[in-house]
TrEMBL record, chain A:
<dbReference type="GO" id="GO:0051539">
    <property type="term" value="F:4 iron, 4 sulfur cluster binding"/>
</dbReference>
<dbReference type="GO" id="GO:0042126">
    <property type="term" value="P:nitrate metabolic process"/>
</dbReference>
<dbReference type="InterPro" id="IPR017896">
    <property type="entry name" value="4Fe4S_Fe-S-bd"/>
</dbReference>
<dbReference type="GO" id="GO:0030313">
    <property type="term" value="C:cell envelope"/>
</dbReference>
<keyword id="KW-0249">Electron transport</keyword>
<protein>
    <submittedName>
        <fullName>Respiratory nitrate reductase beta subunit</fullName>
    </submittedName>
</protein>
<feature type="domain" description="4Fe-4S ferredoxin-type">
    <location>
        <begin position="203"/>
        <end position="232"/>
    </location>
</feature>
<dbReference type="Pfam" id="PF14711">
    <property type="entry name" value="Nitr_red_bet_C"/>
</dbReference>
<dbReference type="GO" id="GO:0008940">
    <property type="term" value="F:nitrate reductase activity"/>
</dbReference>
UniProtKB/TrEMBL annotation, chain B:
<dbReference type="InterPro" id="IPR023234">
    <property type="entry name" value="NarG-like_domain"/>
</dbReference>
<feature type="transmembrane region" description="Helical">
    <location>
        <begin position="173"/>
        <end position="196"/>
    </location>
</feature>
<dbReference type="GO" id="GO:0005886">
    <property type="term" value="C:plasma membrane"/>
</dbReference>
<keyword id="KW-0812">Transmembrane</keyword>
<feature type="transmembrane region" description="Helical">
    <location>
        <begin position="44"/>
        <end position="64"/>
    </location>
</feature>
<keyword id="KW-0249">Electron transport</keyword>
<keyword id="KW-0408">Iron</keyword>
<keyword id="KW-1003">Cell membrane</keyword>
<dbReference type="GO" id="GO:0008940">
    <property type="term" value="F:nitrate reductase activity"/>
</dbReference>
Length: 543, 237
């Protein structure tokens, strides 16, 4: 047993209102640069819908992820090493900018520079790729709220055709997506340069910008299409799980800014030796269970001993025992992986939405929160369940049904308590839970306190000698004190200033408001001309 | 004059080639990329790029065979001059034509597809000019020598000169007597080597052959690859 730690996320889809705050804040933090205009490390798509990039889930077309060869061993769906090297000069399976969308800006200057005229001047859209005026016809969320035509949705096609129309009237829900930080990442396996790697401490999948040579195979390899090609720098970029933030114990930007408080971050421990074996499970429908079987119980003394032997620090083991992710996957059993059939062992899990069922029930005039009605409806409404099963369990409706029953039981059980009635243990039992578990689940899902939602152990300074840049001089070779030989985009990238994130954490988690005296001698930013850094531009560091 | 052209220039170009790469690798790893433009346009690229790259790989192998391997070696294994010449001309012409066709498609694409043209730097244009010139002169030298004349045995002149550069006993006289087209081809190739480290051609030196042997999943610790602080004392102020 080789125990490794993995930072994982769970998203509770019942609470997602599709506001795109996560996408926008992520974009402002990470991809507001030239070359990444079309890139959304985090995007929210309406299901059913085509997704971003369009129809990315159609692996017969894009060939992402893994498949089994005739001997039952794992192989990359887009072809092995030799085939990759032979198609390196023109990757036939790479999405074009049109499959994402052509990014644009507006000709805002027209509004000011247009001469006096009878008509109001307009700012016309201009392509950020070619610089020419363009007609906007698609974007990352063009089919929001079932706008346009969701029928090319590859998942929808799998659910039988005859129910389609009825189905479209029945429901929709939102699916926020980031990189899955898989246990068996096919993007890493596809990278010819070996520039992509999985961090051994926390399992975050990253691209080494200094070693990436722009061969573009990772874009093909990822079945979720969450590795992007920066067309200006010629390098791959992807979601970083906001590693500079989680290293100091604060949640990712998308989680922090989520207005629905639907994201959970925590550790899971897994047995790295068993990943390949589990990913090669013959039947696709068994992959959900196989994926769970790779994860280890952090309360098991044997696991704890093995984890210590693998060098996982004690506070990380504590965090693993407190992990909301582990509880949601195992104790409550409500979190499911996205597309386990890609065999990458994705580590962003989802609690499927119950609300479509409740809505349909309420529309027919029934009490949408009565336990009997709800249980019956879950079993009867095979269409949403079938669709959810295609997303989360490779088409097996049973686990989805079980999750929805638990969520339904929680609603009914808690409603009785809210109305001041006696708790009804039989509702909990019907979903395979105990009453106190239902209340714990309700606390985690409905109240979702910050400290329970995010249990993120800090990175260890003794492991990461270079984490601290405090007091380290900036004029080392290629450091930020020097400019690269080919302008600002060249040279070694400036190391992430971890101390800024410590300051951020201090501000976000501090209890006291700053003393008014603190503001004395500070520069009023409204009067600052943007030149230089006068004294008092930044707050004094607290002792 | 011949010393300047066939001794000084080659050493200058090769020194720039080697040191330039060392310098670029040290200071500009982030700029070391293919700068692929496939995102913008892939229909023409899918024809042109493999045609050019596979063509130029065969051409490169042919140059190794013709320049590095001495004539006496091939004759020792029983390959006559006629047989060598015939195979070199046939293979070289096929590969050369493929390379030129690919290059023409790629340059046409670069000029006509808006986003690709916008992404083309002056550095790229210079590189294309020198690369195109070198390839054109090389192909012209072969075609002219074999159509107008009855072939030119460069393995008695150019090849020994080429090897003499690397054994540090340069023999410029060998090259001075070669046909003009071959001389021009060699000179433009030297120019290409000299600008090589500063262009996008560097991607050739990191061709990912290691991919064939490494394990699929790469694990790396957080510390690896982070720039280390400078050792030693802080300067006094």
């Amino acid at each position: 047993m080789r125990v490794m730690a993995q930072l994982a996320m769970v998203m509770n889809l019942d609470k997602c209102i599709g506001c795109h705050t996560c996408s926008v804040t992520c974009k402002q933090a990470w991809t507001n640069r030239a070359g990444t205009e079309y890139v959304w490390f985090n995007n929210v798509e309406t299901r059913p819908g085509q997704g971003y990039p369009r129809t990315y889930q159609d692996q017969e077309r894009w060939r992402g992820g893994w498949e089994l060869n005739r001997r039952g061993r794992l192989k990359l769906k887009a072809g092995g090493r030799v085939r990759k090297l032979f198609s390196i000069f023109a990757n036939p399976l790479m999405p074009s900018i049109q499959d994402y969308y052509e990014p644009w800006t507006y000709d805002y200057d027209r509004l000011f520079s247009a001469p006096m005229q009878a008509d109001t001047p307009v700012a016309r859209p201009r392509s950020l790729i070619s610089g020419r005026p363009m007609k906007i016809s698609w974007s990352a969320n063009w089919d929001d709220n079932l706008a346009g035509d969701p029928s090319p949705d590859p998942v929808l096609r799998k659910v039988s055709d005859q129910v389609k129309l009825e189905f479209e009237r029945a429901f929709m829900f939102y699916l926020p997506r980031i990189c899955e930080h898989c246990l068996n990442p096919s993007c890493v396996a596809s990278c010819p340069s070996g520039a992509m790697y999985k961090r051994s401490e926390d399992g975050i999948v990253l691209v080494d910008q200094d070693r990436c040579r722009g061969w573009r195979m990772c874009v093909t390899g990822c079945p979720y299409k969450k590795v992007y090609f920066n067309h200006r720098t010629g390098k791959a970029e992807k979601c970083t799980f906001c590693y500079p933030r989680v290293e100091v114990g604060i949640p990712t930007v998308c989680s922090e800014t989520c207005v629905g408080r639907l994201r959970y971050i925590g550790l899971v421990l897994y047995d790295a030796d068993r990943v390949a074996e589990a990913a090669a499970t013959p039947s696709e429908r068994d992959l959900y269970e196989a994926q769970k079987s790779v994860l280890l119980d952090p309360h098991d003394p044997e696991v704890i001993a093995a984890a210590r032997a693998s060098g996982i620090p004690e506070d990380w083991l504590d965090a693993a025992r407190e992990s909301p992710v582990h509880r949601l996957i195992f104790e409550y059993g409500v979190a499911l992986p996205l597309h386990p059939e890609y065999r990458t062992m994705p580590m962003v899990w989802y609690i499927p939405p119950l609300s479509p069922v409740v809505d349909v029930l309420a529309k027919t005039g029934h009490d949408g929160e009565d336990a009997g009605n709800l249980f019956g409806a879950i079993d009867a409404l095979r269409i949403p369940v079938g669709y959810l099963a295609e997303l989360f369990t490779a088409g097996d409706p049973e686990p989805v049904r079980a999750v929805l029953r638990r969520l339904a039981a929680m609603r009914s059980y808690m409603r009785r308590l809210n109305l001041g009635r006696e708790p009804d243990e039989s509702i909990a039992t019907a979903a395979g839970l105990r009453g106190e578990q239902v209340e714990g689940m309700h606390r985690l899902l409905a109240l979702a306190p910050y400290a329970e939602r995010y249990v993120i152990p800090k990175a260890h300074a003794e492991q990461g000698a270079q984490l601290e840049e405090l007091g380290c001089s900036l004029d080392y070779d290629g450091g930020p004190g020097m400019t690269g030989p080919f302008g600002e985009a060249s040279g070694l990238p400036a190391p992430v200033a971890v101390e800024n994130f410590h300051a951020l954490r201090e501000r976000q988690t501090g209890e006291n408001l700053d003393d008014a005296d603190e503001l004395r001698g500070r520069v009023n930013l409204l009067n600052w001309d943007g030149k230089g850094t006068p004294d008092g531009l930044f707050p004094r560091r607290k002792k | 004059m011949s010393v300047l052209l066939w001794v000084v220039l080659p050493y200058v170009a090769l020194t720039v080639f080697v040191l330039g790469h060392v310098w670029r690798y040290r200071y500009d790893k982030f700029g070391w990329t293919t700068r692929s433009s496939q995102m913008y346009e892939s229909r023409l690229l899918r024809v042109g790029s493999p045609l050019f790259h596979f063509g130029i790989l065969v051409v490169a192998l042919g140059h190794v065979g013709g320049l590095v391997i001495p004539k006496s070696w091939t004759e020792a294994v029983g390959v006559s001059e006629e047989l060598y010449h015939l195979s070199a001309v046939v293979l070289g012409t096929v590969a050369g034509v493929a390379t030129v066709a690919g290059l023409v498609i790629l340059i046409y694409r670069r000029r006509t597809v808006g986003p690709v043209f916008t992404a083309t730097t002056r550095n790229d244009k210079l590189m294309y000019a020198v690369l195109g010139l070198t390839i054109a002169l090389g192909l012209a030298a072969t075609v002219v020598a074999n159509l107008v004349g009855e072939g030119y045995d460069y393995r008695t002149t150019i090849s020994p000169w080429f090897r003499s550069i690397f054994t540090f006993q340069p023999e410029p006289a060998l090259m001075a007597g070669a046909p003009v087209l071959f001389q021009l081809h060699a000179l433009s190739a030297l120019a290409l080597f000299a600008i090589w480290p500063f262009t996008r051609l560097v991607h050739m030196l990191t061709a990912p052959v290691g991919y064939l042997t490494r394990p699929y999943i790469v694990y790396r610790s957080r510390d690896e690859g982070r720039p280390a602080a400078k050792r030693g004392w802080e300067p006094s102020r």
